[in-house]
Amino acid sequence: MAGFKTLDDISDVGGKRVLVRVDLNVPVANGKVTDLTRIERVVPTISELSDKGAKVILLAHFGRPKDGPAPDLSLRPIAAATAEVLGRPVAFAADCAGEKAELAVAGMRNGDVLLLENTRFYKGEEKNDPALTEQFAALGDVYINDAFSAAHRAHCSTEGLARVLPAYAGRTMQAELEALEKGLGAPVKPVIAIVGGAKVSSKIDLLMNLVKKVDALVIGGGMANTFLAARGTDVGKSLCEHDLATTAKQIMIEAATAGCAIILPVDGVVAREFKAGAANETVAIDKVPGDAMILDVGAKTIETINQWIDRAATLVWNGPLGAFEIEPFDKATVSAAKHAAARTKAGKLVSVAGGGDTVAALNHAGVADDFTYVSTAGGAFLEWMEGKPLPGVEVLKK
Ligand SMILES: Nc1ncnc2c1ncn2[C@@H]1O[C@H](COP(=O)(O)OP(=O)(O)OP(=O)(O)O)[C@@H](O)[C@H]1O
Ligand SMILES: O=C(O)[C@H](O)COP(=O)(O)O
């Protein structure tokens, strides 16, 4: 890959301690990994290094721990899931820095794979603290970043390490960058974006620039509720970040200036409980009962979204349109996914989707393989779309 050093540029990796940043931030329900895509995507790099006799030390985060170690955000169960997908043992160290990590690394044999505990259990990780970077660096001889989906974060494990160790792009990082450039480098117009999901605060700012790049922006999921509330619609108990109303309004103004249509739900499926099979009804968006939450967009909105997909030559999608994990609130996401997949198969649409949960939703709809490209990245994918330099990618450039 032009401009980057890859695994092809490392000579003689046998016996070396190779720190590999992977993204194992996978969807989990009742202690079980519900979508293995992110794990499957890091297999090529891990297997290649292990086959060449490297000591493969995996660094990863899980969730967003607020205050140091949190037992429910341990990577321990993910080590077992990774071993199963990889088809070889994956040892686990209960710390990612300091004595426990050092001992675990010292005990490795050539070809072994070791997963270290959640890097975000250290506050320094998200601050890109050089002292923590040094602690990580002490565990390895070489650094490989295979986590494109975390490359929008300038953290010790995604950016800092590349400054202190010989650094390379992993196979998945390489494949993601190549595929995105091929699919979206010069997108054919009209381009529409569908943005939904729950990570409203971390993604809303990205929409400010996205509306300058696309012809239409369809907003669903929790993101839509925030825009609806900003517009003065009562969204009852729905997932909504009311303090982002000003940002949402600015985005709508920016979109109008740029000539980008904003498509918000006109109806919603509401329920009083967030659980599968909860009693629900479809209501007009200005009739959401005060004690209910919108868990999916309604039938009229689905029809509109599918019509926009029909008009598009390129579709960019991040974030499900509803709480797709719990039926029947998966309807809109499944309908739009199947519609986009059929248009893609007919050669009428270039469809690129990204995001941990978005990939899970496309798998749930059974159409992930029919999209032009499915990226494991959510926030990173949107930032890449905006044309923003990603710290974890920039630092790898030759
Ligand atoms: N109306 C809604 N109310 C509550 N939750 C919702 C709603 N719509 C979507 N969600 C939730 O949004 C979550 C996915 O959002 P997220 O922004 O994390 O997606 P992603 O970009 O694919 O993932 P990531 O950013 O982790 O890669 C799902 O768990 C889904 O249940
Ligand atoms: O799920 C993701 O998009 C990545 O793993 C990054 O996670 P973050 O948004 O918590 O940094």
UniProtKB/TrEMBL annotation:
Compartments, record wording: Cytoplasm
Binding site for ATP: 203, 325, 355-358
Gene Ontology annotations of biological process type: gluconeogenesis; glycolytic process
Alphabetized GO MF terms: ADP binding; ATP binding; phosphoglycerate kinase activity
Highest taxon of source: Bacteria
Reaction equations catalysed: (2R)-3-phosphoglycerate + ATP = (2R)-3-phospho-glyceroyl phosphate + ADP
Enzyme class label: transferase
Annotated residues for binding of (2R)-3-phosphoglycerate: 38, 120, 153
Binding site for substrate: 23-25, 38, 61-64, 120, 153
Coarse class of the protein's main subcellular location: cytoplasm
One Gene Ontology cellular component annotation held by this UniProt entry: cytosol
SUPFAM superfamilies: Phosphoglycerate kinase
Pathway: Carbohydrate degradation; glycolysis; pyruvate from D-glyceraldehyde 3-phosphate: step 2/5
Sorted UniProt keywords: ATP-binding, Cytoplasm, Glycolysis, Kinase, Nucleotide-binding, Transferase
Catalytic activity, EC: 2.7.2.3
Family per similarity comment: Belongs to the phosphoglycerate kinase family.
Subunit and interaction comment: Monomer.
Name of this chain's protein: Phosphoglycerate kinase
